[in-house]
Amino acid sequence: MFIKKYLKWISTFLVLMGILLTNLNIYPVNIFFHGLGVVGWTIAGFISKDKAILTNFGLQIPLFLIGYFKLVF
Fold this sequence. Notes:
single chain, mainly alpha, 4 helices, 0% strand
């Protein structure tokens, strides 16, 4: 429970930083912050067996992968 609690808060901070950086048009750093937060929330959803969190954040991972590949290639 201890790790899950802090994982959620750290992931929330990262997602919000990613959103802020997107609004400030600071690219590509926004993708990295938001993406790390999404991965953290997905792990937290897996640990807590919360299907709604897994669906929401788990489906965002492929979208961020598209952004990473677009950045590299």
